[in-house]
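Troubleshooting entry. The earlier prediction with alpha-D-glucopyranose gave an output that would not parse, so I re-checked the input for stray whitespace and re-submitted. Clean input:
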Amino acid sequence: MFNRSSLVPPLFLRLLPILLCSLFTVAQTKPVDAAGHQWWQHAVFYEIYPRSFADSNNDGVGDLNGISSKMSYLHELGVDAIWITPCYPSPQVDFGYDVSDYLNIDPMYGNLADFDHMVGDGKKRHIRIIMDFVPNHTSDQHPWFLDSKSSRTAAHRDWYIWRDGKAPGQPPNNWISIFGGSAWTLDQPTNQFYYHFFYAQQPDLNWRNPAVETAMLDTTRWWYKRGVSGFRLDAVDTLFEDPGLQDNPVLPGTNKQGDRNMKFQYNTNFPEVHQELQKLRKVADESDAVLIGETWTSNVAELDRYYGQNGDELQMPMDFMFTTVNKLSPADFRRQIAAVDSAHGWPVFVIGNHDLVRSYNRYGDGKNNDAIAKLMGAFYLTLRGTPIMYYGEEIGMENNDPTRKEDVKDPIGRTGWPAEKGRDGERTPMQWDAAPNAGFSKRDPWLPVPPSYKTHNVETESKDPNSILNLYKNVLALRHTNEALLEGSYAALNEDDPNVMSYLRSYRGKAVLVALNMSATPQKATFNLSQQGFARATLKPLIASPEASAKGSEVTLEPFGLLIAEVK
Ligand code: GLC
């Protein structure tokens, strides 16, 4: 009989050189620290909506030179990488998420030379650039689509998803676009429908066509060569759909666009997505780059799959489970953190982005919003995982929603008015100072700033030691230097406390305790840390709200007060 075990030593010996060689390559391209962490695990990411960050040429819309001019601000704040939402050429139907050329910069933002300068300016201040990559769809003005729709036999016809109608004038199935209406649009001249999960101006690419895959992988390679350190992958769960086009199950009720609710069973989350992510990751690994995913997972099993069975897909899937806790609820937060911690990858924490009402409004109670904004900053920036901030969060920017339909810029706000006001409110210009237009531009900006810019702006808050901005700066400075925060494990404390959210971050005998009063009444909390190896712990405050204090292992917190303390 064939003895398998007898093969083991020779096979192992034969594989050894390959093994050593690949370990060496990994070590070369992926430097890790003593705790085994890579650069993106220590980095603080910051999302920039380029239309709204800084307007260097005063045309009312932000640009890349504007971003470059703010690199030292970002560095002093404690940011290590910026993710810039799409700044490629685009008709701007979805404000850049409708790309008409993946290998260029939209003139409204500058040009490739400005991009190169921005990369250089970032490098000088140790800030990496992460681009947004939109793999699911292009603009309907992209040359690929223009060719695709030109005839049924065009070279790019099969780069998109074309189907005959069920009957004359009737779409192939019941799928709806999440931006409203049918997900199918009829192209009269060729008498076929094309598929779009988002707007009709955003036709879905056909990822089952190998030419599409090659073009997209090459696109990422091109940008890595240009100096980007990774991508945030847009809407990855929508890359594939059922080739049989089965109808989606219809659910009760209608959505904000007035369409019937449905389960996106046959047009999202196909297993093929993971094969593509593995390929994108392979290319990313050639450049020690990071892949962040807009993954919209609703449970840990789904989240786990995005890390890849062998850790070979996304390093940083954004699960958004954390953003579903829209109240100051320690119990809910504990549950979410435990869930993300139990996944087989590195946690990512996000409390706001360009599609979500600002965290200042979502968590704020209308009276103590500044204290709550500080509390939330002290919270997610001290967890075990990589945070992705959203521009303006550090100064307590609030939503500025349109009050009249005619002012709405985001198309979903126009089609869904008044149930859906769109996403303009969370995309308003960065508030730099108390000058008109918050110092963003000398001209009226594309979206109006809220009246609170007079008090909530970078210049004013820089001067106030108690501002949200200075709290963020202090926490980020601590996070970059304190080993327990940088490398440490996470352990929930006092898990039955309904008001004070607390946890311990510890690493090699050093520990930091974080206590956050999520209630509107004063609270005390006592900690017994013997289980964690700190039997007679005393707490030495490192960062605290004005009335917070520690005596031995007891903490006193004012309403929404916070304390970050070293455990002695
Ligand atoms: C993502 C983006 C969103 C955009 C959509 C379509 O969800 O975050 O802003 O509208 O994709 O590209």
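This one parsed fine. The two ends are 64 Å apart (CA to CA).
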